[in-house]
Amino acid sequence: MNNETPWWGEVNLDKERCLQLDIGPLSVAIEHDAHEWRIHSQREKEVDTNDNRLHKIVGQFSPCYYQDVARYIVNSSSNHIQLLPALADRSVVCRPVAPINLDAGASVTLYVSTPIYLMINVVNSKTSLLQELATQRLSDTWFGPSTCSGELCYASATSGRLDLQKLPYRIQRATTPLLIHNNADDNLLFERVALPTPLLSLYAAKNGQLWTENITLTREDNGDFAQLKLGKAPLKMSFVNGPRKNIGHSQIIRAFSAIFN
């Protein structure tokens, strides 16, 4: 497929027809039978985050029968399905290749990427979700100052690049610019960053790369609190999908016990 042609969107899938989609490590085959939808899926065991495999075909052919199969009976005669990328439903804890020290009064912008999810919907008078699949299976992790305080997140590795020009193209991941302002009197050392992905929207550049709005974390004193601010939509990009949760654009949070550790 041409990267400038989005792989997401609505697809007309008449009965006895099939859709095959390969995106990065995830492979999906969707069948439309007389009374049901069947979704076959599997992921590659060895994940290469730089693998930009993308293949999509619709036709009357036998699907690839993968290891995971789900069957759906719906109260709808619609032939239309919708493929939609989404961000993770929990915060994603990303670990840069090396810890980062941020001096008092200093600021930094990190470009952090997280795996996307694939939402498969049936479209009729309303949109109904059939299944949601992660392009990369993420492990669970607890993030917080103690076992009694914190949140359940996903874990993912990231390079945490500082140079926008050195960002690799990754079809199955979304990139978030993370701005950190350390206005406190002491240094800030962090080894992990937890992105609040449920609060973010998805946008697409012309080359098909997915982005989110930027996030700004401002630490004003030596305590745990910081201001979380969501930026505006990226310029010259098209809107793809909205946030799972809406908190507005700014709030005070206990950032450095919940976001950094």
Write a structural description.
With 261 residues, the chain is an all-beta fold. It is built from one helix and 23 strands. The longest helix has 4 residues, at 255-258. It is elongated, with a radius of gyration of 20 Å. It starts with 8 loop residues before the first strand and ends with a helix.
Which descriptors would you attach to this protein?
single chain; mainly beta; eight-stranded mixed beta sheet; five-stranded antiparallel beta sheet; 23 strands
Uncertain regions spanning at least 5 consecutive residues: none
Note the run of SSEs as H and E. Answer: EEEEEEEEEEEEEEEEEEEEEEEH
* Total strands: 23
In terms of quaternary structure, the protein is single chain
User: What overall geometry do the principal axes of the alpha carbons give?
Assistant: elongated
Helix count? 1
Task: Give the secondary structure arrangement, pairings included.
Elements lengths: L8 E4 L4 E7 L2 E7 L4 E7 L10 E6 L8 E5 L7 E7 L5 E4 L4 E3 L4 E9 L1 E7 L3 E8 L4 E8 L2 E9 L15 E10 L5 E3 L2 E3 L6 E3 L5 E2 L3 E5 L6 E5 L7 E4 L8 E4 L1 H4 L3
Parallel strand pairs: 8-14, 15-19, 15-20
Antiparallel strand pairs: 1-7, 2-3, 2-5, 3-4, 4-6, 7-11, 8-17, 9-16, 10-15, 11-12, 13-14, 18-19, 18-22, 20-21, 21-23
